[in-house]
Structure formats: C-alpha cells, structure tokens
Amino acid sequence: MKPHWPGPAIVYGPGSLQWIIRPAQRLLGGHWGALGELGRGTCNAVHVSDVAAACLAAIRAPAIAGGVDTFNISGRETISWSGWYARLAAALGCPTLRDISPSRWRRRVVAALPFKVLARLSPGAGRVFEQRILAAPSPSELTLFALVATYPTGKAAAGLGWQPCVGLDEGLANSVAWLRSVGLTR
To answer: What is the pLDDT of residues 141-153, one digit of tens each?
Structure first.
C-alpha cells in the first residue's frame, strides 16, 4: 500500500520559490538535466489557486463548520519528478533535458555541500557560488524525488464539494507567464 498524508501536496504557482523560481533558474541556467531513475517518485503538484479554492470550500462547508477534519488537496494529474522537470522545461522553452547519470547527480550533491554551507553562513558567499548550488539537488530533494506517494482527494470532493480545476500545463503556463511579468525569465 502506498503512504498517504493529509494536507496539500506540492503547491506551485506564481511566487513559488521552491517549485517554480528555483527550478526555473536551474533549467534556464543549463544547470539541470533529466533526473532519470532518481526522479521516478511521485510529484503530486497542485496549483495555488486550487489550494485557495479548497480552503474557501472548507470554510463554507456546513458539515465541518466549527469542527476539525483533514483533507488531501492535490492536482488533477500525478506525474513523476522527471516528468515535472521535463514539463516545466518545455513551458519555459528550454531544450530537451540532457541525461545525467544517477552517480553524477550524487557527485553533484556532495560537491555542492560546502558551497551550500557557506551560503547559509554568508549570503554574499551564496551569491558567488549560486551556479554551483543550483547545479545540485539537496539530499532531501533526492529523497523526495524518489518517494512514491499519493494524495487521494475523494474525501475533499465528498466533504467539501472540491475538485482541482487547474491542469498541469495550464498551471505551468500561468507560472511561466508570472516569471516573465516580474522579469525572472525571458
């Protein structure tokens, strides 16, 4: 049986540092490649507007007014992390991601650790080594990218009348349009 956790999944959209801005910087800078087997885990992405709609539905739901309950909130599509990065790269207009072997990804993780420590100690040093830092996932990212988990949303549909509305391609296009509007990408 696959593990299940209550709450929103990977919340992305305009302004998302972790799931839009940093990945876009990695992809546009040419620092990122295909995750291959390391990205076989599940990316349960949900657009921020769907999360907001779920919150409004929960506030308005008479069955849980004044009570406490938990609901899984996830998007319409479930894809792998390899798929997530490939779709984001396509939305950004990047070329097809080049293959990077699992051993090379792991070497990048180890090689970037001293630079990541320096960046935490001194933000100025972080800017100097930003390219090296962007080129490597963190150990926790590698763990996440390998995790296979699902967030069934049937309870939210039944109890809140909520369904995700934003498809992944629409959400990524919206996010890339925002990146362009604020000058974070071309």
So the answer is: 999 999 999 889 9
